[in-house]
Specification:
Elements: E1 5-8, H1 18-33, E2 43-47, E3 50-54, H2 61-67, H3 74-90, E4 100-101, E5 110-113, E6 116-119, E7 126-127, H4 152-155, H5 164-179, H6 195-207, H7 216-219, H8 224-236, H9 247-262
Antiparallel strand pairs: 1-3, 2-3, 4-7, 5-6
Helix pairs in contact: 3-5, 3-9, 5-8, 8-9
Length: 285
């Protein structure tokens, strides 16, 4: 076999810590349980703080978004595949109820391997407990303060979070695909120089359910591909987690849009039609 793999292990100068051991155990468990998903990184071996996985040989998602923006349907395929990966993560025990939450969905944790996008880095994931009385999965508390990729319920320090925090963060990835910069970027109106001030400002906005500014050209687009991704993004951004779509619903919506637009690629006239010349229809507008 001539395949390149990655070995991640504890550095010699670092001491063993039970907390990090548990995180690495969760990371390995998640990858092992998700080997059936083509959109989750494959694990080959694990022992304590060491793990052997696939080598990510492709470009970052942000780079792909920038280089593929003129390639018809490329960004829609990227969006669909990432959503599929997240839906698979939430479906470890079936689609009925999410029992595992990634809890750190962002651009850095999506890698490209052999041209396929895969979710990675599950070490702060949450294995949800089940209420013995109701039979429902229990909520869990917010833990991490960086507001850029977090949901309103996390910013408001809820103790009863669900898998819907991942769906909100997925919305930020879709934002990057069509807005061509990260959410709460320095281009944001009201941005103040300085990381601490910026973090406080963003956190207050997120708490109130205020979204990062969507560029006018995205809001008013006639590009059917961008419009479909935008609609999925806004569904992810629903303030109330109970009303927020599931990752599977988002993935299925993007897949239907991709299938429908794929029918029309042969009708484009090179040099005459820009992508988006086709009718959007009510469900994409």
């Amino acid at each position: 076999c001539n395949e390149t793999v990655v070995l991640k292990t504890l550095k010699f100068q670092h001491n063993f810590e039970a907390t990090n051991y548990e995180r690495d155990r969760i990371d390995a468990m998640a990858m092992e349980r998700l080997t059936s998903s083509p959109h989750v990184i494959d694990i080959f071996a694990n022992c304590a703080n060491s793990v052997v996985t696939e080598f990510a040989d492709g470009e970052r998602v942000g780079t792909l978004a920038d280089t593929k923006k003129k390639t018809p349907l490329a960004r829609l395929k990227i969006a669909r595949d990432i959503a599929r990966g997240l839906a698979d993560v939430h479906s470890i025990d079936g689609d009925d109820e999410a029992t595992f939450v990634h809890f750190d969905v962002n651009l850095a944790n999506v890698v490209s391997i052999g041209g396929r996008l895969k979710l990675n880095d599950f070490n702060i994931g949450v294995m949800r407990k089940r209420n013995e009385t109701s039979g429902k999965a229990c909520g869990f508390p917010a833990q991490y303060s960086n507001p850029q990729w977090r949901s309103p319920e996390e910013a408001n320090d809820s103790k009863h979070l669900s898998e819907k925090v991942d769906v909100f963060s997925l919305g930020h990835i879709l934002f990057r695909l069509i807005c061509l910069h990260e959410p709460w970027h320095k281009l944001e109106p009201g941005y103040k120089k300085g990381e601490e001030v910026r973090s406080q400002y963003v956190n207050e906005q997120v708490k109130r359910g205020i979204l990062p500014t969507i560029p006018k050209e995205v809001v008013e687009t006639s590009d059917a591909e961008v419009a479909i991704i935008r609609k999925a993004m806004l569904a992810c951004y629903t303030f109330d987690p109970e009303k927020r779509s599931s990752a599977r619903s988002i993935a299925n919506f993007l897949d239907r849009g991709l299938a429908e637009l794929s029918k029309y690629t042969s009708r484009r006239r090179p040099g005459k039609d820009h992508w988006g010349s086709f009718r959007l229809g009510k469900k994409y507008s």
